[in-house]
Amino acid sequence: MMDRTTYDGVRKAALADPEEFWAARARVGLHWFSPFRTTLEWQAPFARWFADGTTNACYNCLDRHLTGWRKNKAALIWEGEEYQQRILTYQELHRRVVQFAAALRGLGYGQGDRAILYLPMIPEAAVAMLACARLGIIHSVVFAGFSAEALRTRIDDLGATLAITADAGRRRGRIVPLKKNLDDALSECPGVRHSIVYRHTGAEIEMRERRDLEWADLVAGAEAECPAVPVPSEHPLFVLYTSGTTGKPKGVVHSTAGYLVQVQATMEWVFDLRDDDTYWCTADIGWVTGHSYIIYGPLAMGATTVMYEGAPDWPRPDRFWEIIAKYRVNVFYTSPTAIRSFIRQGDEHPNRHDLSSLRLLGSVGEPINPSAWNWYNTVIGKSRCPIVDTWWQTETGSILLSPSPGAVETKPGSATLPLPGIDAAIFNLKGEPVPDGQQGYLVLRKPWPSMLRGLYGDPERYRENYWSRYPGVYFTGDAAHRDSDGYFWVLGRVDDVINVSGHRMSTMEVESVMVRHPAVAEAAAVGRPDELKGQALVVFATLKGGATPTPALGEELRQWVGQEIGGFARPEEVRMVDGLPKTRSGKIMRRLLRELVTNRHVAGDTTTLEDFSVLAKLSASDEDE
Ligand code: PRX
After folding, report:
1. Does 392 sit in the ligand 1 pocket, CB within 6 Å?
2. Nearest 5°: phi and psi at 498?
3. Ligand 1 centre from 337 Cα, in Å?
4. Most buried by CB count within 10 Å: which residue of 102, 490, 519, 523?
């Protein structure tokens, strides 16, 4: 922990010479098989960090901890939804990863191959990710809540040849048929040669000969040795699909060395992680937070990371607090949406448990409203744990704006200051920094090691999405302002991306699924502010001739979206309407719909509307409800 003066000194020096700053971090932070000599090659918007060095993410997360006392330290503490418990030491986790990597190598997979991981929150998810990393296989974890169709498009885009799954997952006592979903997806993905199945729940599944392989058989027959393969720094460690502003998800590509250097550094600056800490991040490994702050960051640090399989309120609303008390968790990292649901459930649930082990609390995923912040601070942190409100994105790879505990005083609702080496600013439309207090677009003016390296197979979209608004400057898609203390306040997205319970969703993706339904002619999806979820998804739809708007059809359309994307994307509400408000050029005016669902009437500028009667009708039907 640093004091403010020391910390400001570090930030100042880092900004004066970011390359030297990151090079120094990289030299001490990672094990290098061959050291790098060049730090950054920057041909905007393409960055290469430490490019002539070689390293391996799995080696850095496991092997290097085995030579000292950490070999018998708990690396992973796993709690199953049904209260099962597994604790894997560094040595034990390493042994399992080596076995599984040897099995993958035996099947012929190696550097540059792509694997889809569709797994529940179980230690084997960590084993599979690390085994891929060990061999240089690029992994792409698909959140287990995604449907077969969403899985298929990702396998397809990635050109994956290997899939790793489990028979099923558990969620609130129900079984999630992962293998069955994968089978459905693979029926249209001939490029996948093998799917490896871990038996987790004992659910009945079909195994297809030759293609489907049992995890247990594979590791039983695998060789005992499988050294980590040195890969170039820029070798992609993983691709993670996230929602963008079109119907097609974006495959965000992350590198090996730059990514690892910065997730590790932020573990230190943000979580002030100590060797005797028990650290728990409640995210799912299907999202970037799970990658960076359950697996790669904590393990690179040699920390003890907790992984919980199930839902926060299962079987009772105090499950999280029970886990904190049971494992004496010191650092706890969760989302505002979870915090808001805890508030609703009542203080008696946390109050029943001993939370005195907690030292530091974190928040991520969306702006945290001051009342949730205050509750988190008093009821969970007992007013003695700093709260780190961490702003970042799938694309940034690691936390970029956050207080550093001890050094930076917090203000409820602000992610405070950019971390060392991060050049954040707020721009107006013309690309000029706005005065303090004025709202604008959050941008990053200099490349950083854990930044995305591109969108898989689509350099044009990468350039267009992030770098076209301000040449050479990264556009985050978030609105923000900075106060007179230099603190950043991130307000939310400015594009067609909405944030439902911390899950990023593309309104365009939902719309393109809606119009595939035989009854739907046109659809427009918007976010409505929601006390619990941050934003709730509302979809307006016009129907094809012959279809009648009934409550049953509305429900069918909700379920349709859930089935096509995943349950978490099921709209809160589907409104069937006669027409959608459009501009003269035929563009749907989502802004008006947003206002309609937010304020129940439209006050904004409507002069570009083609047909006012459509809007009048929409408002009228809204008043009727
Ligand atoms: O709008 C910001 C919001 O979440 C977006 C990134 O979403 P995703 O890539 O899914 O990553 C989530 C986990 C890193 C951002 O563009 N966001 C994330 N954290 C915060 C936030 N908004 C305000 N405050 C935060 N702490």
Report:
1. yes
2. -120, 165
3. 12
4. 523
